[in-house]
Write a structure and sequence with these properties.
- The longest helix is centred in the N-terminal third of the chain and has 30 residues.
- The protein is mainly α and 64 residues long.
- It has two helices and no strands.
- 59% of the residues lie in helices and 0% in strands.
Length: 64
Amino acid sequence: MDALIDLLPLLRSLWVVWFFILFLGMLWFVLRPSRKRHYESQADIPLRDDPPARDPHDTMHGAR
């Protein structure tokens, strides 16, 4: 048990380094240039026009 207590400052430092590396990996995954087109298409979703709503009582276009 004393060995773990002695290693506590080192383990805390390693956790900080691990989370920093993990954060950089997430940034790289999200911000890589090959994903730019995907994120641009996702960004304009709120600006897209919705297709016109179909009338459920309309029998002219056939039933599904």
